[in-house]
Design a protein that fits this description.
Shape: elongated
Bound molecules: uridine-diphosphate-N-acetylglucosamine, magnesium ion
Helix content: 10-25%
Oligomer: single chain
Structural class: alpha/beta
Number of strands: 39
Largest sheet: 16 strands, parallel
Strand content: 25-35%
């Protein structure tokens, strides 16, 4: 089946410099969801009509293998958009699927059900409908095209809000912006659509009335979940759609055996994976291609982006982890910051106010309080004391620090890179280390403490 996405409109109601279909829902542009639902329903031949800020839209879909068509007049209307892609479907003798680019909540399941419904109608009613459209009942249908039907339940026409009479406005069944048109019949009528008197636009929905006037049959298919048909025409509708999508994703992961506490506060993007028995606490954000392994817990307010968390890890409250890997059994946070391809090894502990950048911590490493670890390798079972700073930047370049196994770096030490510290070294607290240290050596650099008798504070009377 061929599918055409309409994405050329001005999106005036968005009041935005950015094309409407590029506004994000959970970190992905609206258009991504539309392409994704088509692909998940097995549609491979996809065309897209662009017009307003065409180059931006094309760029956003460049890795998606879609055919691009241009609509010259951005105020032409949805019918004009379909005419602009005539090369895509003129000789097509099957059903052309047309979907609004601002309908990201429709699911691939619904699309598959529609396809099945169409073949059942063909098989049992021995009719070939000229069009099947997705509809739903909305308690408040304001703004949508209303589906007007005859007594047999067939569609007679769709009337747009602006053209609807008082009676028609009372109809709650709305047009969901997804249609399957038998292409030869669409061709028969589409050039006969007259522009709207109200707006001058050529409405695709007018094609339905022209079809039924010719005696063609048009049917509607009701979406089981009315949130699917929500069209996104302004920023508040975007916010509502994002919420619907967010809750769907959370429900999906809960059903797969993960606990989500206070779901109204949790943000999980569509490419995230939870492997089971994961526990997510309130206000967590999981972004990009993040994966959370079995049995791991992600504490309140933690933000993880493009990060792999292996099994039985604890990422404690308010930690931020980006583009990094946390290996099994490790504990990170509360209030830790891990970034830029860092690796926190098995069973290691990185505690509060520790920042780790481009560094690999091997197994059982401990850096539990107030440290900066940058451009370093730290061998297994090494302890980094409170307040240790890896001085990796000399003002011009970044340098590496290599620390071996079982090393003890005392609190508040300064390690000046480039630096190599071998295994079993002991560095006393407060040392400034600016040269390499050999295996098993002890290092201390500390100004001598002077105690002057009786020169402290005066005693209070
Ligand atoms: C449209 C339907 C309405 C339906 C609703 C569902 C028409 C005339 N009306 O209304 O019946 O209930 O969707 O959400 O179709 N577009 C173009 N070129 C244009 C105009 C629009 O490509 O000249 C694209 C837009 O980028 C958008 C889609 O078509 O992705 C729908 O356009 P929009 O203006 O949002 O139509 P609605 O008023 O929502
Ligand atoms: Mg719309």
């Amino acid at each position: 089946m061929r599918a055409l996405i309409l994405a050329a409109g001005l999106g005036t109601r968005f009041r935005s410099e950015k094309p409407k279909v590029l506004h994000n829902i959970l970190g992905k542009p609206m258009i991504w969801y539309v392409i994704n639902l088509l692909k998940n329903a097995g549609v491979t031949d996809i065309g897209i009509v662009v017009g307003h800020k065409a180059q931006d839209v094309i760029k956003a879909v460049e890795d998606q293998e879609v055919k691009v068509f241009y609509q010259k007049n951005p105020k032409g209307g949805t019918g004009d958009a379909v005419i602009s892609s005539l090369d895509f479907w003129r000789d097509y003798e099957d059903y052309l699927l047309v979907i609004n680019g601002d309908s990201p909540l429709i699911t691939s399941e619904t699309l598959k059900q529609m396809q099945r419904f169409l073949s059942l109608v063909q098989e049992y009613e021995k009719t070939t409908p000229s069009a099947l459209l997705l509809s739903s009942f909305l308690p408040d249908p304001t703004g949508y095209g209303r589906v007007i039907k005859d007594e047999k339940g067939n569609v007679i026409r769709i009337v747009e809000e602006k053209d609807a009479s008082f009676q028609e406005k009372q109809v709650n069944e709305i047009n969901g912006g997804l249609y399957m048109f038998y292409a030869p019949h669409l061709f028969d009528v589409i050039f006969h659509i007259k522009p709207s008197k109200e707006t001058g636009e050529v409405y695709l929905t007018q094609a339905i009335e022209l079809m039924t006037k010719k005696g063609y049959i048009v049917k509607s298919f009701m979406a089981s979940d009315p949130t699917e048909v929500l069209g996104i025409n302004n920023r508040w509708e975007l916010a509502i759609a994002e919420n619907v999508m967010r809750l769907r994703i959370l429900k999906y992961w809960a059903e797969k055996g993960n606990t989500i506490h206070q779901p109204e506060s949790v943000w999980i993007e569509p490419d995230v994976l939870l492997e089971g028995d994961v526990e997510i606490f309130p206000n967590v954000s999981l972004k990009g291609k993040t994966r959370i392994g079995k049995g791991s817990k992600i504490g309140n307010g933690a933000v993880l982006e493009n990060t792999v968390v292996e099994e039985n890890v604890i990422v404690d409250a308010y930690s931020v982890v980006r583009n990094s890997r946390i290996e099994s059994g490790a504990v990170v946070g509360p209030f830790a910051h891990i970034r830029d391809e860092s690796v926190i090894g098995k069973n290691s502990h990185v505690g509060n106010f520790v920042e780790v950048k481009k560094s690999k911590l091997d197994e059982d490493v401990k850096a539990k309080h107030l440290a900066y670890i940058g451009d370093a390798f730290i061998g297994s079972a090494t302890n980094i004391g409170a307040g240790v700073v890896f001085a990796n930047f000399d003002g011009k370049n970044k340098h590496q620090t290599h620390i071996g196994k079982n090393v003890f770096v005392g609190s508040n030490s300064l390690l000046i890179a480039p630096l190599k510290i071998e295994d079993f070294v002991f560095i006393a607290g407060g040392s400034v280390v600016n040269k390499d240290i050999g295996t098993g050596d002890f290092a201390i650099s500390r100004p001598k403490l002077r105690v002057v008798k009786g020169k402290g504070k005066e005693k209070l009377a």
